[in-house]
Design brief:
Layout (H helix, E strand, L loop, with lengths): L3 H24 L1 H8 L3 H9 L8 H9 L11 H19 L4 E4 L5 E4 L5 E2 L1 H11 L4 H10 L1
Antiparallel strand pairs: 1-2, 2-3
Helix pairs in contact: 1-2, 4-7, 5-6, 5-7
């Protein structure tokens, strides 16, 4: 259904949300990093399968080994993929020297490496959740090298 006032309101809110996230990362990088690290759905689903996520590269490898039961729920799949990407970013930021969160103009959170390379972790997480490839540990290893 096309409701003009709703579409206009939503467009205005998206712009505000983008500026707010970017401003939060700029104003309080540590606080924003903590917010992005929550990944609640992924942590709950991993915990249900006996895996505690400890924000280490080893936990990414362990996630890659889990049976992909989340693919059975098409409504949950994009949320879990988003969380997987944010978790990948969290591990990168916490373990790779010089890695920081950044926000693209579209509002997408990415990880910027010391070299200047940007890793679109959310897209990597979505790809992983939907197809299992690339593995999160592989993206981490390739990113940590640069």
């Amino acid at each position: 259904m096309n409701i003009a006032f709703w579409d206009n309101w939503r467009k205005r809110q998206e712009g505000t949300r983008r500026r707010t996230l970017a401003a939060a990362v700029e104003a309080d990088p540590d606080g924003a990093a903590e917010l992005l690290a929550e990944c609640e759905l992924l942590r709950v689903r991993a915990g249900q399968q006996g895996l505690e996520l400890d924000d280490t590269p080893a936990s990414l490898a362990a996630l890659d080994q889990l049976p992909p039961r989340w693919r059975d729920d098409p409504e949950e799949l994009p949320w879990l993929g988003n969380d997987a990407g944010l978790y990948l970013g969290t591990v990168l930021v916490r373990t790779v020297p010089g890695a920081t969160w950044d926000i693209w103009p579209s509002g997408q959170p990415v990880v910027r490496l010391e070299s200047g390379r940007e890793i679109d972790v959310v897209t990597a997480g979505l790809d992983w959740a939907m197809s299992g490839s690339p593995e999160l540990s592989q993206v981490y290893a390739e990113s940590a090298e640069n």
